[in-house]
Amino acid sequence: MPKLGILERLKHGPVLGDGGYLLELEKRGWVRPGPFTPEVAIIYPNALREMHVEMREAGAEVLQALTFYASRDKLATVGLEDRVEDINRSAVRVAKEVAGDQCLVAGNLSLTWMYGPNSPTSADRVRQTFDEQLKVQCEEGVDFIIGETFSWLGEALLCVERAKKTGLPVMVTICFENKDETAEGINAATAAKTLFDAGADIVGMNCLRPPQHILGPMEQMRKAVDGYLACQPVAYNTPKDKPDFTSLPEFPYALDPLQLTRKQMGDYALQAKEIGINYIGSCCGSVAMHVREMARVLGKLPAESRIWKKGGTKPMSAYEYYDHDQISVK
What is the CATH number of domain 6-326? Predict the structure, then answer.
């Protein structure tokens, strides 16, 4: 029996996405800080495979192929412009191998750093960039397309335009930097309406901001539209006056103390569900432990089946000794 597609799954309730890959792989030494390009997909695919396994086992229902920044102009910055096909193809294959019949696999497009407003030349260049990646990803059999991290609504619309031509469901998410608006100055509600009108199946926001600075704009989107909404915040605390974590002096080498706890990410998942967000995911800084807690609070993890015989009258671990087993972590 074929697995349900993303739109069919969303009809039955919230879908849980995976977490962030590039920054975690950078911490593990497989991605170079600065360019953050995904050549790990061909240099050491086992590192990428292991992260997908972690996300799958944590309860993620979608694995995103690591094709963020796997575009010709971006890869040219590290001398790999001729490996676009190889990187995109390998990234999808690794994700599909791990996903099996358990998870959907999303192709991925991202900001290009080439878009310019009112520039037909740059728009055509962005179209070519998206088409080149989409061709390979669709050949490898992705289940749907995610376009993400677009500060410019105009670039997000180009993503919708090109991704819709594949015939697959399309999810496109924008991001707000340090102001509650796109680079053109458009608010969340208007952006969501515009993306839906352009043909996107799922719209929303991702990256740059943690839950406390992204859920407000997401609520505005929910009030403005009836369609499926997606939210994928980062798992780093940021101040209210500088919500974009990439603008902080701690980026990228000193982010560790800013990482959210798994409980904070679980709380976010519940808030997102209450708001009416349909695709509940996460982005940079969110690792398997966060996804697992999100899955737990959303009721997507099975009950623990491993045997644990407690010590009875005598504690057999500090967990029992200090009564942690008596305290709810919800």
Answer: 3.20.20.330
